[in-house]
Protein: Serine/threonine protein kinase
Organism: Neobacillus kokaensis
Amino acid sequence: MISDWKLADEALRNIQVIGSENNQSVTIMGAAEGLTCIGIGTDAAVFHYHKTPDVVFKVYSSQALKKKEVEEYVYEHLKGARYFPTFYGSGTNYIVMSFEQGVTLYECLVQGIPVPEQAILDVEEAREYIRRQGLNPRDIHLKNILLQNGRGKVLDVSEYVQKGNDYRWEHLLWAYKNFYPFISGTPVPVWILETIKQWYFRINLASFMLGNFSKRWNFFRQRK
């Protein structure tokens, strides 16, 4: 049962999540029976425990414990909203959330799974809800959006207390409307997605004008 999530506490003590100073993915040391890592990020790793199948445990590296506090704060403000996982509690170095099944939009592109417009609209609604709670919807990207029964669910709320617009969602929304219709349902090789990501991080977002990019894209299409 969900209320028994503390059964995993002893198992979680047998693993250590080690952070990197170069913003690389964390590494994991140790193991425990019934404990499976289902996700790895730059600050934490997510584990599923066989005795508590309805929840997952996001375990932070020692360098990222401040982000644990931030996520607890944000989830408390987003409590009850259907756009996000449900937050149940926390331990010394982890938080407990509902286990959400589905595939990320990144996985949809790789596997050629069509992304319905409803999932995009759900993210738009989620962003408005975040703002109404006095928070800032940042860091919303392909790996942070889950496709679940045709609907969109937003994962990873750790940057919602930061200021400024990183424009990641605006650029994804533009790409969905202007480019995605031509590749919907077609698998995209991982190397192409990773190349695009590296290019994206190198550009100056302040001068990245979607209008100009759109003109170049339309010109390229007309010449094909």
Summary: Confidence is low (pLDDT under 50) at residues 213-224.
